[in-house]
Structures are given as structure tokens and as C-alpha cells.
Amino acid sequence: MLEEAKSINLSLSALGKCINALAENSAHVPIRDSKLTRLLRDSFEGTARTSLIVTIVPPPRHRGETASTILFGQRAMKVENMLRIKEEFDYKSLARRHEIQLDKLIAENERQQKAFDDEVERINLEAQNRVFEVERNFTDALEKERLKYQMEYMESVKKLEEKMIVNQRKHQHDGFMKDKCNGEVLCIKNHILFHVKFIR
């Protein structure tokens, strides 16, 4: 009898803790502390309609228990649970929900993969365009440099040719003047010889 009374008191104490936690909107409700609170789990979670009746006795000698019971009832009146519809656990519906979620995840993954591939392709194309632009600019610069050196070379060749023509003309003129001088010297020499012979 004593052990049974102890168990009842422990269960009522655990019930009081649960009521206090619910009244204070605590994040943790100690439902597992006793068999009584485990049986009332649906009531605490809002998936069952529950009525609580508090009884007291009028004799003065029980006023301590009466006051404690009234306080317990006042705390219980502060409990406000949101009613929730309890769903029956259905493996088929759970599997369907998981399949739908999996399909959504696969579709999202494919979308992100396509976006990633498109971004990689865009970056590669942009890099190729930049390389092509650099190569084209480098080729244009080389062509301009080649044309510059070619023009300078042709200009140098032209100057050399003009100098050669001038030298050739000067050489021809010098040869002509030499021949002319030689002719005049020969003529004078013949004239002198003629006069020498005539004097003799």
C-alpha cells in the first residue's frame, strides 16, 4: 500500500512538472518521467481532447491538500495547446512524399549543374576570345614592324642605287676627261715633233 502511494505521488509530481512546463511554454516537457505522463502524451502534444477535473474536500484538516489542488488547477487552466490532427503513419504515402522530394532534389541538382556548365562554357568562350584578341593584336604589331623594317630596307637600297649611279656617272665623266687630255697631249706632242723636224 505504501509503495503504491509512493508511485501515485511520483506520477502526480511528474504530472505537475508537465503542467508547469506547458503553462510556462517551456521548450522541454518531461513527458517520459512517469507512466501517467506517457499515457497523457497525446493530450500534452495537442492531438487529443482532454478534460481535467479537480476535486477538493471541505474538512479543515485537508486545507493543505485543498490549497495545493486549487493551485494545480489554476496552473492547468493556463495551459493552451494548439490542436493538431494526428496523422496515421502510412508507409506508402511516406514513400511517395520521399519520391516527390527526391525528384525535386534531382531536378534542382540538374538545374544547378546546367547553370554551372553554362557558366564554365561562357568563361571558356570569353577566355578564347581574349586569347584570340591578344594574338590578333600581336600579329598586327608584328606586321607593322615588318612593314616598317621593309620600308627602311627599301629606302636604304634606293639610296645605295642612287649613290652608285652618281659614282658611275662621275667615273664616266672622269674617263672622258682623261681621254680628252690624252688626245690633247698627243696632239701637242705631234705638233712639237713636226716643228723639230721642220727646223732640222
Automatic annotation (TrEMBL):
InterPro entries: Kinesin-like_fam (IPR027640), Kinesin_motor_dom (IPR001752), Kinesin_motor_dom_sf (IPR036961), P-loop_NTPase (IPR027417). One of its GO terms (biological process) is microtubule-based movement. It comes from the Eukaryota. One of its GO terms (molecular function) is microtubule motor activity. Residues 1-79 form the Kinesin motor domain. The keyword Coiled coil applies. PANTHER family: CENTROMERE PROTEIN E, KINESIN-LIKE PROTEIN. This is Kinesin motor domain-containing protein. It comes from Gossypium raimondii.
